[in-house]
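We now fix the convention by which a protein and its fold are recorded. These numbers are not coordinates but entries in a learned vocabulary of local backbone shapes. A record is reproduced here so that you can trace the correspondence yourselves:
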Amino acid sequence: MFALARDHAEAAARCARATPPDREGEQTHSLVSLLMSFLALEAFINMVGGDRLGSRYRHYDRMSPEGKWQEVTRLVSKTGKTFVEDGKDLRALSTLRIWRNLLTHYKGEYEEVQQAGRGGETTVEALLTAENAARAVEIARTLYRAFYEMDRRSPPRQFIWLDDRPHRPAAASAAAVHPERGGHPERRVHPVVPPGREDRGAPGAPRSAGAAPAPAPAAGPSPARPHRRRRR
């Protein structure tokens, strides 16, 4: 869900930068991004509470999202720390919850859109912007990071919606080679110098000043060399 929220936030930004701007596309992608950001946070704290608290989590299941994030973090983290009740992280979560409620609990109220200073848009339409979509994604990412800083455990990367790593530009991703994606890093082959020939350097390389010349081979047949097998 978090990856979906991030993808739609980027799509909303592309619609806003288009010439002319695609306001309808921006609103559609922003709607998905806002909702998915909140749902990802809600699913995350439910998953952590159920996994680490077991049957005890039923006592916290009916709490508000802000209460869940505060109490569950305090109970499950290794440090025993949690979010400050009126801190910026939980205030940002409250803002995201208000946005979710405005979008999903719409009451069909009439508005004087021409006098509201929003360019003829309703409250819901004005909320659905690329800026708010990016803010929603950043709220979710910040809460993930803050949780694991207090938890002192590595985040489970197998959950794609928990991936809080920012996207890399497409050009940089194409130029780089990632071993985890099936590629191989660039390999350089270094010549192997046999023992006793370290002072001769590479073939064709100039001799350093003052270096003694290599002794001429003795007359007569060269002594037989022992047969060596390459170790595999």
Residues 2-106+121-168 form one domain.
